């Protein structure tokens, strides 16, 4: 491939809208939630509407959360299925929807955070009974970092949940986002009667256990229509009138731009299991959710409408079956058109590569595809040449930014159990951390290798894979750290002094960035106070 002259980006001229039609019909998003809030159920209902599956229950096999954290092989067995369900592409009303799956199990949370770098918006499911939960908070933090537009679905309204006003207040306060109700519930639990659509002023009546798509929508002229009293009873009708007056006064009309900028989150109420309120959500989603947008690189902003292809790897999925030891790298297309068998520039390796069997993910099956456009996710067979954050282009050298690493929560020293296999161990741990299974830190001075993960399960994964794929055996020694903070300073001497004094608690990450390993919040706060010239960061960008 001729790469000459590509360092200067060519003028776009008339070609700028070449793929506009394809881009305009794509919406790439993820459904996220704390485990058990209803993500799988809602996903399934979306797929039913999109005609991608015919029966309820088809997505259930992707659930891995029910297992104890120690049973990682069982989880992996089930996760094998999830390559196909990692991305689900379906059409709904002429919109091509790429729904990116995120693991339910909290030990795979980092995978979820990275997937969020590849989507253009999210639907956040909240359990009306449990309200905002731990994982919800963290997921929302990741969305906020990137100003990702969020639509909230308050699920399980058929159960006796929190008061509707209280739940709004809780979400706004806990997730630090302004909400905008799109529908409004009439009671909850056994008294749940349905929702009032504040936008098109229709009433949607709830009947438990109806078949998918059996929704009962009633048009009412206005809230004073006596039909409302007939349908839901005088008391509830009066309450609804009062509620709506209050809401209209407070919220007014949704400004789509505020949603697109991640400032306001529209809220829907419903019951995913009963397929109630899902269609309203989907209809608004396809109307307001963002199409693929321009993205930043370390060199320049890449316009989504440029006709030259570019994309980045956000996830690598390894097959643990020894008979099929392949890896699939997930590529998010950011601009141009990706074509099968065409050479692309692998920026980090400075090498041109091509793919003869790229996959697209239509519902639950993988299909070899010939091309893909901005917003699409392509599965590439990988024999170890990719790591998370790698960028492919048509020759230009840049990296997409905004793909962060998060501080791990559990730290263990990697101990080599077989000195004859040191090389294998080093190669193995280097490749596994490239895949994003865990983070590797090397202690200053001592050269101790420290593995940081979000969940215990990852250590089991690492031990198993090192043994089976690299013939290296290891064990782990627990370390008393609770957080890794990446350090920067405008004063290099101060930083160097700090790292020297705190040698026992400092290390470098795989890219050579200095990191402080805090034993507790108290230590962390103390160090921050004592070292005002040093900045402590809880995330690190793979490419700055
Ligand atoms: P997740 O992917 O977020 O972890 O949640 P999932 O959809 O698996 O739902 C968790 C549980 O909540 C499931 O029950 C599911 O049936 C139930 N659920 C989902 N939506 C609703 C709803 O609107 N109302 C009520 N009452 N329940 C809902 P389970 O017993 O854990 O699993 P299963 O036996 O139904 O598969």
Give your account of this protein's structure.
The chain is α+β, with helices and mostly antiparallel strands and 544 residues long. The chain has 3 domains: 26-288, P-loop containing nucleotide triphosphate hydrolases (Rossmann fold, 3-Layer(aba) Sandwich); 295-393, 3-Layer(aba) Sandwich (Rossmann fold), CATH 3.40.50.300; 410-543, 2-Layer Sandwich (Alpha-Beta Plaits). The strands form 8 sheets. Strands 28-25-27-26-30-31-29-32 form an 8-stranded antiparallel sheet. A 7-stranded mixed sheet has the order 2-3-1-4-5-11-6, sandwiched between helices. Helix 7 (226-232) crosses helix 8 and helix 11 (422-435) crosses helix 12. The longest helix has 18 residues, at 234-251. The chain is globular and about 80 Å long. The relative contact order is 0.12. The model is unreliable at 1-15 and 61-70 (pLDDT under 50). Bound molecules: guanosine-5',3'-tetraphosphate. Guanosine-5',3'-tetraphosphate binds at residues 33, 35-41, 60, 63, 65, 104, 155-156, 158-159, 271-274.
């Amino acid at each position: 491939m001729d790469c000459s002259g590509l360092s200067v980006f060519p003028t776009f001229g008339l070609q700028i809208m070449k793929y506009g039609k394809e881009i305009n019909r794509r919406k790439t998003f993820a459904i996220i939630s704390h485990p058990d809030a209803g993500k799988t159920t809602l996903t399934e209902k979306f797929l039913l509407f999109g005609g991608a599956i015919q029966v309820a229950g088809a997505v259930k096999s992707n659930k891995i959360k029910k297992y104890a954290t120690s049973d990682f092989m069982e989880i992996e067995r089930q996760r094998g299925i999830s390559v196909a369900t990692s991305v689900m592409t379906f059409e709904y009303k002429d919109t091509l929807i790429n729904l990116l799956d995120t693991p339910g199990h909290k030990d795979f949370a980092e995978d979820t955070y990275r997937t969020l770098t590849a989507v253009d918006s999210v639907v956040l499911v909240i359990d009306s009974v449990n309200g905002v939960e731990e994982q919800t908070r963290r997921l929302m933090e990741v969305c906020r970092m990137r100003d990702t537009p969020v639509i909230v679905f308050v699920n399980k309204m058929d159960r006796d949940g929190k008061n509707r006003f209280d739940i709004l207040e809780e979400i706004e306060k806990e997730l630090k986002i302004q909400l905008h109700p799109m529908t409004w519930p009439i009671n909850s639990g056994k008294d749940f009667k349905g929702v009032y659509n504040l936008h098109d002023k229709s009433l949607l009546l709830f009947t438990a256990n109806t078949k998918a798509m059996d929704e009962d929508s009633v048009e009412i002229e206005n809230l004073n229509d006596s039909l409302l009293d007939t349908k839901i009873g005088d008391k509830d009708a009066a309450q609804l009138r009062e509620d709506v007056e209050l809401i209209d006064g407070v919220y007014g009309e949704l400004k789509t731009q505020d949603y697109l900028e991640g400032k306001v989150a529209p809220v829907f109420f419903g019951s995913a299991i009963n397929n109630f309120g899902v269609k309203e959500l989907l209809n608004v989603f396809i109307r307001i959710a963002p199409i693929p947008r321009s993205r930043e690189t370390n060199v320049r902003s890449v316009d989504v409408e440029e006709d030259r292809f570019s994309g980045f790897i956000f996830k690598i999925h390894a097959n643990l079956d020894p008979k099929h030891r392949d890896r699939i790298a997930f590529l998010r297309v950011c601009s141009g058109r990706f074509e099968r068998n065409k050479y692309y520039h692998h920026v980090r390796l400075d090498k041109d590569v091509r793919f003869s069997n790229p996959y697209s993910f239509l519902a639950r099956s993988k299909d070899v595809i010939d091309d893909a456009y901005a917003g699409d996710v392509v599965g590439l067979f990988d024999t170890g040449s990719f790591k998370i954050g790698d960028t492919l282009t048509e020759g230009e050298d840049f990296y997409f930014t905004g793909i962060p690493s998060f501080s791990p929560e559990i730290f263990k020293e990697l101990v080599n159990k077989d000195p004859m296999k040191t090389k294998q161990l080093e190669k193995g741990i280097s490749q596994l951390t490239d895949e994003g299974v865990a983070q590797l830190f090397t202690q200053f001075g001592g050269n101790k290798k420290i593995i940081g993960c979000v969940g215990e399960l990852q250590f089991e994964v690492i031990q198993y894979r090192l043994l089976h794929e690299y013939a290296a055996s290891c064990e782990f020694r627990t370390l008393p750290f609770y957080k890794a903070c990446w350090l920067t300073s405008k004063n290099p001497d101060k930083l160097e002094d700090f790292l020297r004094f705190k040698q026992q608690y400092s290390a470098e990450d795989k890219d050579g960035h200095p990191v402080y390993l805090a034993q507790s919040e108290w230590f962390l706060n103390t160090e921050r106070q004592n070292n005002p010239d040093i900045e402590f960061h809880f995330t690190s960008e793979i490419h700055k």
